Amino acid sequence: MLTLLLLACTGPATTDAPDTGATDSADTSDTVDTEPEVILWAKYKVDTSSTLRGVYSSGQGVYLVGSRGQAWVGSATDAWAAYALPAELVGVDINGLWGNGAAETLQLAVAADNGLVGVLSGGLWTVYTLGAGANLSVDGTSLANLFVVGDNGIQHFDGVAWTVENLPPVTMNGVWAYEGGAFAAGNEGVVMKRADGGTWAESETNKVANFYGISGAGGSDVWVAGDQGVILHWNGTSWTQVESGTTETLNALYVGATDSILAVGNDGVTLKYSGAGWKELANETNQNLYAVHGVSAANAWAVGNGGLAMQYKE
Questions:
Q1: What span, in angstroms and rounded, lies between the C-alpha atoms of 89 and 118?
Q2: What is the separation of C-alpha 21 from the centre of its chain, rounded to a whole number of angstroms?
Q3: Which distant-in-sequence residues (6+ apart) come within 8 Å of 148 by Cβ?
Q4: Segments making up each domain of the chain, as ranges
């Protein structure tokens, strides 16, 4: 057990001039608006060259994790400060981040290489080794219902111990949990669905792409995204492919509500769904983006290559 520590601030965030201007009117068709919407993506450079692969916005601060065990905390108004992780994670690539609460109630979980998972609760970290391969994604509804996926299969934490629940035929790259179940997305178009009791079964997607990002608003409203801009939607019965308007690989999704969703991917692509179709959002980067999270889809953060953090705020 290790005590949580915040290191001294390494320097102020530098902010590039964001896009400004009026927001386009709402899309009223089922097709994608090919003209980028002019909105506010404020760009920040964290003082690191690490690739950032996980982000959690608590509403009181933003937590970032990435390669070589780098972790940071900050906000749009505060400088970024290095955030101390347990010694076991120093120098280890961190691939995913889950969070819950803020300040004294803050809970975090990180998925990392070398089979490592770190869990923060009550200001103390505990590090678990769940296999030899990389853990790529982590999500849950609480620390008593936490999932990690990657090279070591699909594993579940009940607050006391980890259990290997499934060894899929391919690597799972993303996981999303809700009360009563979970979904995992992986290579070769494989999506696994969990029912109560820990039983996982493959959900037929026609295997159209490798999948990386997955999120939803409930067990009958789930989105998955991956190679060549492919996006699929689950309505509780079947998957339907939805036009995204991009051919870039999409790496992550954040669902703020049924009709308010963000997607981010390679070459700086950022998309938003507002109930009638996906629309490209203008920004000032061509860096790959790997994670997105917010307090809502109207106030969110995306992170990526070279210590890049961007805030979207309507």
A1: 8
A2: 28
A3: 96, 109, 111, 117, 130, 135, 137, 138, 154, 155, 157, 162, 175
A4: 45-300
Q: Please give, one letter per residue, the 3-state secondary structure of 212-276.
A: EEEEEEECCEEEEEEHHHCEEEECCCCEEEECCCCCCCEEEEEEEECCEEEEEEHHHCEEEECCC
Amino acid 6: pLDDT: 32
The CATH architecture that domain 45-300 belongs to is: 6 Propeller (2.120)
pTM for the full predicted model: 0.87
Place of tokens 């009026």: 22
Say how far apart CA 192 and CA 165 lie, in whole Å. 11
Quick check: 191 and 154 in contact, CB under 8 A? no
Identify the band that residue 131 occupies on the pLDDT scale cut at 50, 70 and 90: very high
How sure is the predictor about 183, in pLDDT bands with cuts at 50, 70 and 90?
very high
Compute CA distances 189 → 92, 101, 136, 194, whole Å: 28, 33, 17, 17
Question: Facing residues of 73 across strands?
Answer: 63, 81
**CA–CA separation, 227 and 230 (whole Å):** 6
Q: Quick: pLDDT tens for 270-309.
A: 999 988 899 999 999 999 999 999 999 999 999 999 999 9
Q: Which two tokens stand for residue 16?
A: 């590039």
Which single residue is written with the structure tokens 């001294």?
8
Mean pLDDT of the chain: 88
The C-alpha angle 161, 199, 153, rounded to 5 degrees, equals 60
